[in-house]
Amino acid sequence: MNGYGLLALAIILEIFSTSMLKASEGFSKILPGIVFVVGMGSSFYALSQALTQIPLSIAYAIWSGVGTALTALIAMLVWKESITMYTAIGILLIVIGVILLNLKGTAH
Fold it and tell me: Cα–Cα distance between 53 and 71 in angstroms, integer?
């Protein structure tokens, strides 16, 4: 699998794991807690493998930025959390930052 495929896998695992963290209700529910730990470990492993092919600054910006934006969307859709205008603007700024870092990365 290429670096960006591994990065996509890392993002999917991170988003799923974060939802399991919410579902664990402060680790009071054991199964979602275990899924969180295994999922995050797997996410970091996939990210570490992606870093063998993608620069750290680019990979981490994509992983954290896309993960943050999609987690906020899942929080709204699945967990029925409200998203304020400030949250939406913050997520937009994260996405813009990821784009800018990728544009910088293509120049090198």
Answer: 25
User: Is the overall model pTM greater than 0.90, yes or no?
Assistant: no
Complete DSSP assignment for 54-106:
S-HHHHHHHHHHHHHHHHHHHHHHTS-----HHHHHHHHHHHHHHHHHHHHHH
Exposure b/e, 32-71, CB count within 10 A at least 16 = b? bbebbeebbebbeebbebbbeebeeebbbbbbbbbbbbbb
Both tokens of residue 102?
């990728």
Give the CA-trace dihedral at 43, 48, 49, 50, to 10 degrees: 90
CB count in 10 Å sphere of residue 27:
12
User: pLDDT by residue for the chain (108 residues), tens digit each?
Assistant: 899 999 999 999 999 999 999 999 999 999 999 999 999 999 999 999 999 999 998 898 899 889 988 999 999 999 999 989 998 898 899 888 888 887 866 544
